[in-house]
Structure formats: structure tokens, C-alpha cells
Amino acid sequence: MALQESLNKFKQQQEKCQSTLTSIAARSASSKAPQTQRTVSPMNAPSVSTKVPTPAKFSNDTERLQHINNIRKSPVGAQIKRVIDILRETRLAYTPEQINDACYVDIMGNKAVFDSLRNNPKVNYDGKRFSFKAKHDLKGKDDLLHLIRKFPEGLPVVDVKDAYPSVMEDLQILKTQGQVWLLSNMDSQEDIVYPNDPKVALKVDDELKLLFRSIELPRDMVDIEKELQKNGMKPATNTAQRRAMAQVHGITSKPKPKKRREISRRTKLTNAHLPELFQTLNVPDS
């Protein structure tokens, strides 16, 4: 009996310990539940991005500010060039604020820049906006040709190269069409455009005509090209280079022998009254 009572007490103690452990585990689980509880947002509530914002980087902005500072501390001439380049490329009218946004030149904050830009011959200022001003107001190829024909003695290309963006392309088109002549001056390194218009009357002095006719041209084309270069003209050919290339490739230029025309009895002689012209000719027997 004593043994049985001891066993019953032992079982009761085990059950008590088991219930105690269960209650402790339940309390521990209930204390952790709020940390894992999900929050339910309303259906109509705007979605909020849970992405962590990237920290701002100030390196690029610092470089830009340094660039702007360097421009505004540069010489007045350099700042003027930046503005004129913008005006020429876009052909638009800019306010000082728009110029500042486009090329970082603060016109209103620098009186020297403002005065120089306002008085620049390539800039037009209407009191509010700045725009590019070309020497000749041309709109296209027809205006360009009309202007060139007003200068039969030649028009420097530098005077029209800024008239409008495609003026140089139109100049080459006019040259290809044969409406103008485009020559280079080797002394001044300038291109001169001349009108090729038969209606243009050119008056040449008699002394110049005599001088032109009295000049004896060299027989060799190489010498002619050298003389042209000495007088500031660019030859259209390069005979020396052509001959050098021919020697490299083993090409020899031999003059074609002229075939001597024989006169037969059937040949009609229009100058029969000058028999001395035909004394050296061989007339075969018929």
C-alpha cells in the first residue's frame, strides 16, 4: 500500500510539472504575438512604397557648380564667345535669363559682359532679347546667289559663312551647278566666290589685255602650276604627283605618233593657188 501511494504522488507531481511548463510556454507565445502581427490597411488607402530611399549624392552637383563658377570667372572674351556660339547655332532670341540657363553666362551679373555683348557687331539686342546678327541677311540659296551676283569682282566667303546654318552647303551646290566660281587666295588663305553669270559685264583694261597676251606660258605643265602658286592661285591639277604615281605603277606616257595624211589625186585641194604648200607632200601614183 505504501508503494502504491508513493507512485500516485509521483504521477501527480509529473502532471503538475507538465501543466506548469505548458502555461509558461503559452505565456511566452502570447508575449511574442504583437511583434509578428500584420497590419491590415484599408482597401482604398494609397500604396506606400517600402523601398528604402537612396541617399543623395552631391558629387555631380558639386562638379556642375564648379563648372559654372569657372565659366563666370573666365575672361570676358571667353564668355562672349560662349554666348555668340549659342546664338549662331540656334538662331533664336534669348533673354539674359535664358542665356544663363543655356551656357551659364550671367549677363545681368557682369556689366562688362553685358556691355560687350550689346555692342558686338554679330549680336542684335532689342532691349529685351539677344540674337545673332549676320553681315548679310540671307534666308537661302536664292538669296545667296543674288548677293554673289552683286559682287562681280568677288565676295569673300567669310562674309557669308555665318548668314544661315546651311550656307556652306548651298555654296558648294552653286559651284557644282556652275553658277559661281570658288577660288582660293593662297596669300590671305581666304576663299573668294565669283558669279558665273554671262549677263554680268566685265570691263577689262586694254593694258591688261596686252599684258596677258604678252606673257609666254611655259611648255611644261609642272612649270605652269608652279607659276600659278607663285601668284597666289591654286592649280586645278597636280602634274608632278600624277607623274610620280605613274612611275610607281610603271606607267609611261608616250605621245601618240601623228599619222601623216597622204594626199591622193582624189583629194580636193582648196588651196590650189598656193602650190608651195604641197611640195613636201607625197602623192602616190594612182
TrEMBL record:
MF terms (GO), sorted A to Z: DNA binding; TFIIH-class transcription factor complex binding
Pfam families per record: TFA2_Winged_2
GO aspect biological process, one term: transcription initiation at RNA polymerase II promoter
Compartments, as annotated in UniProt: Nucleus
Region (Disordered) residue spans: 23-54
Coiled coil found in the keyword field: no
InterPro entries hit by this protein: TFA2_Winged_2, TFIIE-bsu, TFIIE_bsu_DNA-bd
Residue ranges annotated for the TFIIE beta domain, each copy included: 64-139
One cellular component (GO) term of this entry: transcription factor TFIIE complex
Assigned keywords, A-Z: DNA-binding, Nucleus, Transcription, Transcription regulation
Keyword Coiled coil on entry: no
Described purpose of this protein according to its UniProt entry: Recruits TFIIH to the initiation complex and stimulates the RNA polymerase II C-terminal domain kinase and DNA-dependent ATPase activities of TFIIH. Both TFIIH and TFIIE are required for promoter clearance by RNA polymerase.
PANTHER family per the UniProt record, alphabetical: TRANSCRIPTION INITIATION FACTOR IIE SUBUNIT BETA, TRANSCRIPTION INITIATION FACTOR IIE, BETA SUBUNIT
Designated name of the protein: Transcription initiation factor IIE subunit beta
Native species: Ananas comosus
Gene name per UniProt: LOC109716195
